[in-house]
Design brief:
The chain is an all-alpha fold. It has helices at about 1-10, 25-35, 55-70, 75-85, 100-125, 140-150. It is about 60% helix and about 0% strand. This is Cytochrome c-type biogenesis protein.
């Protein structure tokens, strides 16, 4: 019984992030608010939506979402308003267009460049002719023996 209670508490913990005083009276607006909140990142927490976060700024963002919905904004208008205010970082799933294409393509491009440069280096290294070193002269052997004795 005790384990069941612990499991239920762990499963329900994200539900406790939205406080009862934040919940809208209109269930349709509240459903829309929860849907929007699940796709917005908490600016303090790492990869946690504002719907799940207990941080103060997450609460402020949840209230802002609900305020905009009550004002009559559509879901897209609310998201655009928050992105305009806080930047694209606030989106849990960033857009894959515009300047973000550079960020999305930079990783694979750097990998390909690195592999290409490594291949060139190994190819040049294998073609390099090794030079044979001449044997030590008697004078150099004597000097080496003297150094090794010290």
């Amino acid at each position: 019984m005790r384990y069941l209670l612990i499991v239920l508490m762990l499963v329900a913990s994200p539900l406790w992030a939205v406080q009862p005083d934040e919940v809208l009276d209109d269930p349709v607006l509240e459903t829309r608010a929860r849907l929007i909140s699940k796709n917005l990142r908490c600016l303090v927490c790492r990869n946690e939506s504002i719907d799940e976060s207990n941080a103060g700024i997450a609460k402020d963002l949840r209230l802002l979402v609900r305020e905009r919905l009550v004002a009559g904004d559509s879901n897209t208008d609310v998201v655009e308003f928050i992105v305009d205010r806080y930047g694209e970082y606030v989106l849990l799933k960033p857009q894959s267009g515009g300047s973000n294409l550079i960020l999305w393509g930079a990783g694979p491009a750097m990998l390909i460049m690195g592999l290409g440069l490594s291949g060139l280096y190994l190819r040049r290294r294998s073609r390099r002719v090794e030079t044979k070193m001449d044997a030590l002269t008697d004078e150099e052997k004597a000097r080496l023996q003297q150094i090794l004795k010290d």
